[in-house]
Inverse folding.
């Protein structure tokens, strides 16, 4: 029996925080690839500490719905799941290449496959592009458009910037958008000066965050100048200093994220049948014809 | 209904004997699925190895036939005769099928569903008679009613206990256990519920017709991991992590909480438990203490399901209190009338008990009445919002 456990941050204050986790779990459930799909949280229930005891399967894949490798994926989750003998060297990662580690979870005395975070997986690049398609409602968006991939800078976590650069570079290599830039909230190049970094009249801004919350709904819109105060709201697109900015909100809410969760489990050995193709198809943006 | 009040953990869920109150074991038909499952199970056993049901057993013989044993002389029979014999014993066979094939082995689910009808304490006849009337169980704020169909299948109605007597037609009906995620997100006032086991579950909905597995999933969605922990406790295997150990484990922004324990007793943890873990705040029964050797002075509550370690809400609050409690007390001098002192107490009580919404707008007898509070503020606060005009920090003067 094959089980998937998606672990995410959650929130004591913001009900939207867990919404993408539940949505992606539902998408994956519908594929039938796993006998059970469970969700566990740091700030909601079931907590990381107790989620594994609700799991029935003997092949257990744990996928962190986090953007980068760092404090949560390397310390908090392995500790709270009680993964015996965990050491970050198990992942042998350069900050982007964590794949999986198979360890006994002491809570259930069974092996689990602990996967790297969704945010650093190569399939995440496609989700960022898909997010740009969704927000512009154009499955071919690119020509005449710039793309800004935005995240925290290194002040919080050095790997956070690595993940953003990694995906921005990969998208740039595809020559689909006229320009692709990685911008940051707390270091240069800063998202506050977005129009200065682009020549294109239209720029899609995709924040590399899992859920919508303070950063994506208040911080970034105000910093970029989409609005004076987030409570006023803003249009998509919104023109700032002559640049039309298509603000996408958290990339983690994009339905194709379910695909990355599946990719992580597949890389760790899960048998998925046709689930990957199914999810890519069902989460597609309509072409409009 | 057998009992109009929901039974609790120790409560009697089932009548002592079928028929005591005029009820009888219902007529049960043997569904083809159940009979086929019996044949499959026998196929997996060696000849002579018995498949046990309540009151009898069946085994294969060496010649493609079957042998039924029920205390008398074992009776050889062919498949048609076996079908007839099992049809006569349909209650016992469907009971076996319900637990061995529908519910399955998974420990927490199996134990929970057996507990609901006291399957480890009562006979099939007694249980089926009780199920025919409806067996009621309480789980947190939930009321679960178990029944049985004439094919021996268990069906469950789950709703808020406050809606016990409301007709299904007057409630919002759901089938998918995952719908429960939306039912638990906000309380009746539309406020986000960060703690699923807070006694603030909104009502107005019902899962009127769940099968056993979906019942388990629904309960686990409304109160996550409560069945798993209850099950471990029943097995004598609940892994309790006490306050000290939990705080020692914290890191990052929560690392500071371990400094709150200064080896000067556990009064501060008593206050935390009184603030957060009281039955009025959380339906879990607190089993964690200060440490393995030191109990808290506060009662753990009466919940059906246990709390095995300080939760993330408690840890987050403890982080705040660790900072606040590092301050040294100061002596402030205010002037208050006796009624004003009592009013301050009444306001704190009203907030702490979550009663502010109940205090009527014109009820100026209540100290926590809004007009009374505004009057006190107008009279006693200065322009900077300082009570009695006394600055919080004396250096500000």
């Amino acid at each position: 029996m094959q089980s998937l456990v998606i672990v995410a941050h959650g929130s004591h204050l913001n009900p939207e925080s867990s919404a993408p986790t539940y949505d992606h779990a539902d998408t994956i459930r519908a594929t039938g690839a796993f006998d059970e799909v469970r969700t566990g949280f740091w700030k909601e229930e079931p907590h990381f500490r107790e989620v594994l005891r609700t799991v029935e399967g003997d092949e257990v894949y744990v996928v962190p719905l986090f953007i980068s490798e760092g404090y949560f994926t390397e310390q908090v989750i392995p500790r709270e799941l009680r993964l015996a003998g965990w050491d970050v060297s198990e992942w042998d990662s350069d900050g982007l290449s964590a794949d999986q580690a198979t360890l006994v979870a002491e809570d259930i005395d069974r092996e689990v496959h602990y996967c790297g975070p969704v945010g650093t997986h190569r399939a995440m690049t496609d989700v960022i592009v898909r997010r740009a398609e969704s927000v512009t409602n154009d499955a071919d968006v690119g020509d005449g458009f710039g793309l800004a991939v935005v995240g925290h800078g290194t002040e919080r976590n050095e790997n956070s910037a690595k993940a953003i650069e990694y995906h921005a570079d990969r998208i740039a290599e595809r020559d689909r958008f006229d320009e692709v830039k990685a911008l940051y909230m707390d270091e240069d190049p800063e998202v506050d000066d977005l129009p200065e970094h682009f020549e294109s009249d239209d720029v899609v801004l995709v924040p590399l965050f899992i859920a919508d919350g303070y950063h994506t709904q208040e911080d970034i819109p105000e910093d970029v100048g989409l609005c004076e105060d987030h409570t006023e709201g803003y249009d998509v697109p919104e023109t700032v200093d002559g640049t039309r900015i298509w603000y996408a909100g958290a990339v983690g809410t994009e339905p194709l994220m379910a695909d990355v969760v599946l990719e992580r489990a597949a890389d760790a050995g899960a048998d998925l049948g046709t689930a990957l193709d199914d999810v890519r198809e069902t989460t597609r943006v309509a072409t409009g014809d | 209904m057998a009992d109009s009040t929901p039974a609790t953990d120790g409560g009697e869920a089932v009548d002592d004997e079928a028929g005591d109150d005029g009820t009888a074991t219902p007529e049960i038909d043997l569904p083809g699925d159940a009979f086929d499952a019996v044949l499959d199970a026998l196929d997996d056993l060696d000849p002579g190895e018995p498949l046990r049901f309540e009151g009898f057993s069946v085994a294969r013989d060496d010649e493609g036939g079957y042998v039924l044993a029920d205390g008398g002389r074992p009776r050889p029979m062919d498949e048609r005769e076996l079908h007839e014999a099992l049809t006569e014993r349909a209650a016992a066979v469907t009971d076996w099928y319900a637990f061995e094939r529908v519910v399955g082995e998974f420990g927490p689910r199996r134990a929970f569903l057996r507990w609901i009808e006291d399957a480890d304490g009562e006979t099939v006849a007694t249980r089926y008679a009780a199920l025919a009337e409806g067996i009621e169980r309480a789980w947190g704020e939930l009321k679960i009613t178990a029944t049985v169909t004439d094919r021996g299948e268990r069906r469950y109605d789950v709703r808020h206990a406050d809606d016990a007597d409301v007709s299904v037609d007057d409630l919002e009906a759901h089938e998918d256990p995952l719908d429960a995620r939306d039912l638990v997100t906000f309380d009746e006032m539309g406020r986000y519920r960060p703690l699923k086991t807070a006694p603030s579950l909104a009502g107005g909905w019902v899962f009127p017709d769940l099968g056993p597995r979906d019942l388990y999933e629904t309960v686990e969605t409304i109160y996550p991991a409560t069945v798993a922990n209850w099950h471990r406790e029943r097995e004598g295997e609940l892994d309790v992590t006490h306050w000290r150990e939990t705080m020692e484990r914290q890191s990052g922004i929560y690392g500071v909480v371990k400094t709150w324990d200064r080896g000067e007793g556990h009064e501060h943890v008593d206050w935390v438990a009184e603030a957060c873990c009281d039955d009025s705040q959380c339906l879990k029964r607190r089993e964690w203490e200060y440490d393995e050797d030191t109990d808290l002075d506060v009662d753990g509550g009466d919940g059906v399901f246990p709390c095995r370690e300080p939760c993330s809400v408690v840890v987050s609050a403890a982080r705040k209190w660790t900072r606040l409690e590092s301050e040294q007390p100061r002596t402030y001098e205010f002037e208050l009338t006796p009624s004003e002192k009592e009013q301050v107490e009444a306001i704190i009580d009203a907030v702490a008990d979550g009663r502010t919404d109940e205090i009527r707008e014109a009820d100026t007898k209540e100290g926590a009445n809004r007009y009374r509070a505004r009057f006190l503020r107008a009279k006693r606060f200065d322009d900077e919002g300082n009570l009695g005009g006394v600055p919080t920090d004396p250096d500000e003067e």
